[in-house]
């Protein structure tokens, strides 16, 4: 679980560029949206033909708005017009398994509601899909559910949909149909889709690694793909077009493995799209980003989003490295290459430099363009000190004819990645020994030698295997990488997100009437706490690791409806004019129409957080919560509190007694205290309600700026 701690807002330029003009909910009984949008543009630009030429697209199936090319002063004019919620620059966002479902507690033998599952439609906004994969074979499927209102667009390498992939559309609004096909030419969307809804495919592997049954969380469900992402990223305007159509098409859940720096809710395409989705009862899972765990790195923080972080699983892809002097070490990588020779010549980036001026990059870390082809060709290259994820070292070495790369990292090794050439990450300690070996001469004139091979072990990190795209290669770098495969291994929040979406869909098949907030609550309160120790661990790990089968029986749920979200937005300072546009309908609601939100956060959320105004502030907060009984009709829940030194947590009352199902009970949590350690910036606690059968956990977090 993440909370809206900070907004890191990029500045817009001064030239003409695309702007999103967001106008809230669809109006009732008014003139056509197209005419309204054109008139607004005319008022801002002053010329009818220019206004029409500058408009790129109108939204109007699920919410109201348009996108147009504007100068900043024209955007400012529009932002002051009646009926407009926000005007903001279009931004390009970035794209952020065989064992993983078992690891999450949902083996193939898990109980399923197949008939309901087959009627479920998962919408995925991504890079497209490769429908010819076995993961999307429609053998045994009936026709699409009658609620489906979507389309299937054909294009290059995409001849049509089937009864598994029931919808496929592509949006590239600014650039036009340069890539006129829903097919996945990158592989990302095919992988995420198969992770959420892919059929069970026995014997899937990547060159024998991670061999097993590849399957989605809800393998009987249907897929609707909305291609909104391309090589350069995912444009705000295309993301909004995806949401506009997915909501109206009748999808039940949405998965979006995309993110960018946090912005105010209604200047953020993903927050806007997910808000209108939740209004229609559609839960959206979004990636939390791959930049953490650090302050101000979490993305997609709106409370109506299920924000998903990534964790490791219980297997590890190891690469054994052996030097010519007999030294052995183990690195981490997904290395499918088999050495053609027993040993290879070894050099370092520093020794193979082609420049002395490091303003253009560092040869020591093997930046692209810094190595000499004559010094690298035919050799393994040691590169030092990088960020712990591929950063182009394999390309730099491979482009100059290098055989492979050994890359040292300062941080703890956890996640395995694929490379375009044989390569592995090693820890800094082993890196220093390799560097010493390279730089030590013994007078015999022998060349330094090395070899590397990969094995798979238990007890480590990395995601499971999922569907790949045969139109691209394992890494996507087609100049160096010629490996075309059906299945691959990927890591990060992009791959974690469809796991959470699949888990949410699984819960929905047993509880089809539950709201998006109820499903999210069930997954959060039954999650397993993470065993990680660094400072900030509670913030980095959120509610913990989900367990889909436990989430079927959470005991109690924290529910939220649109009224709750509007109350929260009023408390956050959104004005009545904005609220009226967001809610839509004939009756013009404003903040005075709603009961004020209670407590420090004003939201009936499964977690609680406080952000202090200053480092020396005392801790004082009250949280009001209401739980709904979905466990045993007659039950008594008692609370258990765990807290940190310096933090006092009181729960009133300490016992909740229920007489029937769906009965609601309220309680409050009083948090007081003070930071004792000068360098501490976070305190954590938790409460858990239990009737001895169910354990309903909620984390509490206190943050202070230093």
UniProtKB/TrEMBL annotation:
<dbReference type="GO" id="GO:0006508">
    <property type="term" value="P:proteolysis"/>
</dbReference>
<dbReference type="InterPro" id="IPR000209">
    <property type="entry name" value="Peptidase_S8/S53_dom"/>
</dbReference>
<dbReference type="InterPro" id="IPR015500">
    <property type="entry name" value="Peptidase_S8_subtilisin-rel"/>
</dbReference>
<feature type="active site" description="Charge relay system">
    <location>
        <position position="188"/>
    </location>
</feature>
<dbReference type="InterPro" id="IPR037045">
    <property type="entry name" value="S8pro/Inhibitor_I9_sf"/>
</dbReference>
<keyword id="KW-0645">Protease</keyword>
<dbReference type="InterPro" id="IPR041469">
    <property type="entry name" value="Subtilisin-like_FN3"/>
</dbReference>
<feature type="domain" description="Subtilisin-like protease fibronectin type-III">
    <location>
        <begin position="603"/>
        <end position="702"/>
    </location>
</feature>
<keyword id="KW-0732">Signal</keyword>
<dbReference type="Pfam" id="PF00082">
    <property type="entry name" value="Peptidase_S8"/>
</dbReference>
<dbReference type="GO" id="GO:0004252">
    <property type="term" value="F:serine-type endopeptidase activity"/>
</dbReference>
<dbReference type="InterPro" id="IPR010259">
    <property type="entry name" value="S8pro/Inhibitor_I9"/>
</dbReference>
<keyword id="KW-0720">Serine protease</keyword>
<protein>
    <recommendedName>
        <fullName>Subtilisin-like protease SBT4.15</fullName>
    </recommendedName>
</protein>
<dbReference type="Pfam" id="PF05922">
    <property type="entry name" value="Inhibitor_I9"/>
</dbReference>
<dbReference type="InterPro" id="IPR034197">
    <property type="entry name" value="Peptidases_S8_3"/>
</dbReference>
<feature type="domain" description="Inhibitor I9">
    <location>
        <begin position="19"/>
        <end position="95"/>
    </location>
</feature>
<feature type="active site" description="Charge relay system">
    <location>
        <position position="494"/>
    </location>
</feature>
<feature type="active site" description="Charge relay system">
    <location>
        <position position="126"/>
    </location>
</feature>
<comment type="similarity">
    <text>Belongs to the peptidase S8 family.</text>
</comment>
<dbReference type="InterPro" id="IPR036852">
    <property type="entry name" value="Peptidase_S8/S53_dom_sf"/>
</dbReference>
<dbReference type="InterPro" id="IPR023828">
    <property type="entry name" value="Peptidase_S8_Ser-AS"/>
</dbReference>
<feature type="domain" description="Peptidase S8/S53">
    <location>
        <begin position="118"/>
        <end position="528"/>
    </location>
</feature>
<dbReference type="Pfam" id="PF17766">
    <property type="entry name" value="fn3_6"/>
</dbReference>
<dbReference type="InterPro" id="IPR045051">
    <property type="entry name" value="SBT"/>
</dbReference>
<keyword id="KW-0378">Hydrolase</keyword>
